UniProtKB/TrEMBL annotation:
Highest taxon in the source lineage: Eukaryota
Membrane topology label: Single-pass type I membrane protein
Organism: Brassica napus (Rape)
Lineage: Eukaryota, Viridiplantae, Streptophyta, Embryophyta, Tracheophyta
Annotated protein name in UniProt: GOLD domain-containing protein
Main location, first listed in the record: membrane
Protein family membership: Belongs to the EMP24/GP25L family.
Length: 227
């Protein structure tokens, strides 16, 4: 009896710890730098695409540039790229052709994976170039150090504003996760309903086949005058 009385309490404590851990991980994931900054090599005539999940109404900015292989000389004519940024539905938010550097900004209309494709202009002989790419979304699109310098606000006001934006981001993220959870629950309910109908249909088919077999055997034995 003592063991039985302790087990529910342990389960409740474990559930509370799991919920607290989930909230802490959520806050840490938002407070951590949600930026995509990378440097990679791209061969002329080839394309590399990068996706980033952005929530609806969130701001996103990005910049790209080709690294000059020889800083003492101008960038070679072969070092040109074509950049295209599209929404989950394929809408183009940014297009640049035959450039060596550039930037883009967008406000997401819908939640989903936004894709940036960078293509190196075809060149003979083939040329390897290095691309610098930086992509920021949400609260991380704001350069708070520049904001503080431009507005000359006091340190306390600056920190409060920064925390307010962080809390707003956490609030939006939690509502987004709740909506996703409701969608998953609705999907589970629909799947369970379909499986229940499928089970009843399977049972009906099995009973029908069994009935047909019984009728066939009965007819067969009657013809043979065995019954």
């Amino acid at each position: 009896k003592l063991v039985k009385s302790i087990s529910p309490s342990l389960n409740i404590i474990a559930a509370m710890d799991h919920r607290r851990s989930s909230i802490v991980l959520l806050i840490l994931s938002i407070l951590s730098p949600a930026t995509l900054s990378m440097r990679y090599e791209l061969l002329s005539g080839h394309t590399k695409c990068i996706s980033e999940e952005i929530h609806a109404n969130a701001m996103s900015v990005g910049k790209y540039s080709i690294v000059n292989p020889n800083e003492d000389h101008p960038l070679p004519d072969s070092h040109k790229i074509t950049v295209r940024v599209t929404s989950p539905q394929g809408t183009a938010y940014h297009e640049a052709d035959g450039v060596s550097t550039g930037q883009f900004s967008l406000t997401a209309v819908e939640t989903g994976d936004y894709i940036t494709c960078i293509s190196a202009v075809d060149h003979k002989p083939e040329t390897m170039m290095t691309i610098d790419f930086d992509w920021r979304s949400g609260i991380h699109t704001k350069d708070w150090s520049n904001v503080a310098k431009k507005s000359q606000v006091e340190m306390m006001e600056f920190e409060v504003k920064k925390l307010f934006d962080t809390v707003t981001s956490i609030h939006d993220e939690m509502f987004y996760l709740r909506d996703r959870e409701e969608e998953m629950q609705e999907l589970n309910r629909a799947t369970n309903t379909k499986m229940a109908w499928f089970s009843f249909l399977s049972l009906g088919v099995c009973l029908s086949v069994a009935g047909l077999q019984f009728w066939h055997l009965k007819t067969f034995f009657q013809k043979k005058k065995l019954i």
